[in-house]
């Protein structure tokens, strides 16, 4: 008599099924462009040099130990993470109305924020962009929130559906939570301009919606940490509330360390204290305290002005390589005379390109060319190199002609 044998298999995850198909493909030239991780020109996982240095420094520091962290994580890490997002001279920080919690990367920060909102916010509807990162609905549904979509991408123009976005947010129920990707939108690579952000801010505030920023790519859009935080800072500058999930997965290449933060900006110090006490209850029941190593690496780098500078140079180097891969791919398609307008490849922002290939073409790319991408036609530009661009361009040319 088995209790567990009645468990039904979970529905197939489309991203994982592409991942497995690639893993099981014996071709020596297979190319995996599904995952959003930055690879070196040699196609290998890339560890930042400044991260290696920080780890060496930590290994030699005998005052360092492996005791439990407090429930909210490393204090310096939290202070420096709030500063990274909100800026050096944030009024909200000075007024002590900001609370930050070290969490398990971007995903864990979103999950803790969602759990807190599910318990303490009357309005359980949360709006995410259409399309958005595939895990957003899972995270919010599992916390008991009710996920709706707002229009974001227009396949016709391969740009932002700004009118649709404003209409949908304008029609959202008062108090609804709105997930806004702070920069380098995944999967579309399309971000609002700053003028558009200002209009979004106005509608969010006038409808009393609660913005929840997903800041998974700070620095990866423009190569500059401060420019990429500008949309978030516009919202914080108006003195109203918001939540921000920050990940160090991409911008420090610390994917597997699971290090990130949840920052909650409140209207007063008194509110911030109450919010903090409740988030700590959520954290305590979910995992007690966060892991130490990744947060120690981040803190070592952010604290030391030389290491911070070296980090920003390495980050800019990653962004520049991605930009040159975009350019090379665009030029390779031009050179082949591939039908269609491919300028979106150089216009889109961040780690991904939404190629416009349909599911049938994506399947052909895998079957005939051993090139793997998500079924929505998204490729990770961070997984390309000068060596692999010509093969990709040949394959795209073949499947669209
Ligand atoms: N948010 C977005 C938009 C992402 O694309 C990702 C990762 O791909 C994440 C959050 C979470 O990443 P992590 O949990 O590794 O920080």
From TrEMBL:
One GO MF term attached to the UniProt entry: pyridoxal phosphate binding
InterPro entries for the chain: Aminotransferase_I/II_large, Asp_trans, NHTrfase_class1_PyrdxlP-BS, PyrdxlP-dep_Trfase, PyrdxlP-dep_Trfase_major, PyrdxlP-dep_Trfase_small
Catalytic activity line of the entry: L-aspartate + 2-oxoglutarate = oxaloacetate + L-glutamate
Pfam families the UniProt entry points to: Aminotran_1_2 (PF00155)
Domain of life of the organism encoding this protein: Eukaryota
UniProtKB keywords: Aminotransferase, Pyridoxal phosphate, Transferase
Keyword Transferase: yes
EC number: 2.6.1.1
Domain Aminotransferase class I/classII large intervals: 30-396
Single GO biological process annotation from the record: amino acid metabolic process
GO cellular component labels: mitochondrion
Cofactor(s) needed by this chain: pyridoxal 5'-phosphate
Note: In eukaryotes there are cytoplasmic, mitochondrial and chloroplastic isozymes.
Complex and partners: Homodimer.
Listed PANTHER family: ASPARTATE AMINOTRANSFERASE, ASPARTATE AMINOTRANSFERASE, CYTOPLASMIC ISOZYME 2
Family recorded in the similarity comment: Belongs to the class-I pyridoxal-phosphate-dependent aminotransferase family.
Protein's recorded name: Aspartate aminotransferase
Source species: Arabis nemorensis
């Amino acid at each position: 008599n088995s209790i567990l044998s009645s468990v039904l298999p979970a529905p197939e995850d489309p991203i994982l099924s592409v991942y497995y198909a690639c893993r099981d493909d014996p071709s020596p030239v297979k190319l995996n462009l599904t995952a959003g991780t930055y690879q070196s020109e040699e196609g290998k996982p890339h560890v930042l040099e400044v991260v290696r240095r920080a780890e060496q420094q930590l290994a030699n520091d005998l005052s360092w130990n492996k005791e439990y962290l407090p429930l909210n994580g490393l204090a310096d890490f939290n202070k420096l993470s709030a500063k990274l997002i909100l800026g050096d001279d944030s009024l909200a920080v000075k007024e002590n109305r900001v609370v930050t919690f070290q969490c398990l990367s971007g995903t864990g920060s979103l999950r803790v924020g969602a759990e807190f909102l599910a318990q303490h916010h009357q309005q359980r509807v949360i709006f995410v962009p259409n399309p958005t990162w595939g895990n957003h609905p899972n995270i919010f549904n599992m916390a008991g929130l009710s996920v709706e979509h707002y229009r974001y991408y227009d396949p016709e123009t391969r740009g932002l559906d700004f009118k649709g976005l404003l209409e949908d947010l304008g029609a959202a129920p008062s108090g609804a939570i709105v997930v806004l990707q702070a920069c380098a939108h995944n999967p579309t690579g399309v971000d609002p301009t700053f003028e558009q952000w200002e209009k979004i801010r106005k509608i969010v505030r006038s409808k009393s919606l609660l913005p929840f920023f997903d800041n998974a790519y700070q620095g990866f859009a423009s190569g500059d940490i401060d420019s990429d935080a500008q949309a978030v800072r516009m919202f914080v500058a108006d003195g109203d509330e918001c939540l921000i999930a920050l990940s160090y997965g991409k911008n420090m290449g610390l994917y597997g360390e699971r290090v990130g933060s949840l920052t909650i900006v409140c209207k007063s110090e008194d509110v911030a204290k109450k919010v903090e006490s409740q988030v700590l209850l959520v954290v305590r029941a979910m995992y007690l305290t966060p892991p130490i190593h990744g947060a120690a690496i981040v803190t070592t780098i952010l604290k030391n002005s030389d290491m911070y500078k070296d980090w920003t140079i390495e980050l800019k180097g990653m962004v520049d390589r991605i930009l040159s891969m975009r350019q090379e791919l665009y030029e390779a398609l031009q050179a082949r005379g591939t039908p269609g307008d491919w300028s979106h490849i150089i216009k889109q922002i961040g780690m991904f390109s939404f190629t416009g290939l349909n599911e049938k073409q994506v399947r052909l790319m895998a079957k005939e060319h051993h090139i793997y991408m998500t079924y929505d036609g998204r490729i990770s530009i961070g997984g390309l190199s000068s060596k692999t661009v010509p093969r990709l361009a040949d394959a795209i040319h073949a499947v669209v002609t």
